[in-house]
Structures are given as structure tokens and as C-alpha cells.
Automatic annotation (TrEMBL):
Activated by a monovalent cation that binds near, but not in, the active site. The most likely occupant of the site in vivo is potassium. Ion binding induces a conformational change that may alter substrate affinity. Keywords: ATP-binding, Carbohydrate metabolism, Cytoplasm, Kinase, Magnesium, Metal-binding, Nucleotide-binding, Potassium, Transferase. The lineage of its organism: Bacteria, Pseudomonadati, Pseudomonadota, Alphaproteobacteria, Acetobacterales. Requires a divalent cation, most likely magnesium in vivo, as an electrophilic catalyst to aid phosphoryl group transfer. It is the chelate of the metal and the nucleotide that is the actual substrate. Residues 3-282 form the Carbohydrate kinase PfkB domain. The gene is rbsK. This is Ribokinase.
Amino acid sequence: MPVTVFGSANADLVFPVESLPAPGHTVLGGAWRALPGGKGANQAVAAARDGAAVRFVGAVGRDPMAAIALSALREAGADLSAVAKTEEPTGAACICVDAAGRNQIAVSLGANALARAAGVPPLAPGEVLLMQMEVPPDENAALIRRARAEGALSVLNLAPAAPMEPDALRALHLLVANEHEAAWLAAHLGCASSAAGLHAALGITVAVTLGEAGAEAAGKGGRWHIPAFPVHAVDTSGAGDAWCGVLAAALGRGVPLEPAMRRAAAAAALACTRPGAAGGMPLAAETEALLGAG
């Protein structure tokens, strides 16, 4: 089954620095780079490089930054026919990456704020729909309900954490959050921040990524914990997007959740060993090689 990704596309300005700047401080770094990014585009590239037929739906401006934002999607062979062109500037992110691979990110939504669920073509039964929170939450909510009506499998990565209608969350096939996003959502729902706690509160399958501690999931089919693959991190900025995109690609091929999560963990580990976000997404053969060595 194909994977449709509804989300953001950005031009990322990446600044390598020795240490991340503190409030009120300026740090000098090496040569900056302009790279394709945005959580939606990153995840779409990850899914495409993992072998999925990917359709990306979002919005960009009519400025030179649009070509940068869409470049990795084009190279990966994603269908961009439903990308809207707007008069707002293309979304952009400023990313500082320190010597340990840690990052600090500021994002300007730009045209991403004009992404609309109505621009998503009809979804096929069983098709995977992947979303994030760098587009208007109301548009995600509308699309989740559409996916339910059309028989598609909707996956929402709650990143960055932002309010979402509880009824829309309960209509999801799968919710993915990192530990900080899970804690934010749990505080709003009045439940434990574990995958099991969020599953109990929402009644849907929930996966929580835990960085070096791996990932956990809970749903009607049980509970799972997948360890992380140990690697030397160079840049962690695309790890979560690699995890989500490869998970969606695997689910689209009919892979059960537990082995799909293990594949996602391998891809995320590989993404940490490379600079940049979209450009660091691994190919299917690379992920399979790490899985075979693990």
C-alpha cells in the first residue's frame, strides 16, 4: 500500500557549533548549510527511501526556498502533485548542532500554516496516512476523520506537541510521541505518560520513543519494548523523523507493529550517524544490513 504524508516542508539552515547557545549568548560556528527539512518532508523521504510509494501533501511558497524544501522529496521519487503553492514564504528552520550531535531548533511555519486537508486526494482502504504537528491541528483532525471514513490507517506523530481534539486522537490508528511529547499529552489527559497509560486514556495504539532507551508501544494487541541500536551520534535532528517514516513504510507493507518498530529503530540509529535531516535518511538496504547485524 502507498503512504500519504500530510505535513510540513522546510528549508533548514544548519549551523555547526561547538556548544549550543545559552539565552543571551552568541556562539561562532563552522560553515552553515541550506538543506531540505520539515517533519512532513523528512518523514516522507524516510518512507520513500525505505521502499514505499509516497505521496507528499503540503504547502510551500513561490520563493527560492521552495526548491530547497522539496529537493530531497524529488530525489526520493515522492509524488508532489498535491503540493500547494502559496504567497506565504516557504517554511524555514534554524538548527544549531553541537559537537555531541545535540540540536536546538527554531521553526518558522510560513506556508505550512496554509496546508489543508482538502488538498489530500482520496485515500485507499488500508493506505497509511502519516501526519505531524507542523501544520494546523484542525486540518489534521479533519484528515484523521476522513481517513477513518475511507478505511485508511492514520498515524499521527505528535511533534511538536500541540493541542489536538481528544475525539480526533481517539480516531487514530496509531499515535507516536517522544517522551517529552508523551509527558505533555499525559498532563492534559490526566494519565501516566507511558505508552500503556496513554493507550488506556485514548483507547488506541500508542508508541513512545525514548531515545537511547529505545521505544515502547501499547495497544489492544499487547505491549512491546524495542531497544535502540547503539551508534556514535553525529546529528540527532532527523532520528525521530526516520523512525516515523520507516515505521509508516513498514506498516504500509503489512508488517506487524513490533517488527515495524524494530526496523524504525534501525533506521533512526543510522540517521543519527549522518549530518542533516532529510539527507540523512537511510536506504532500505542500509537499514536491512543493520538489522541483520543486530
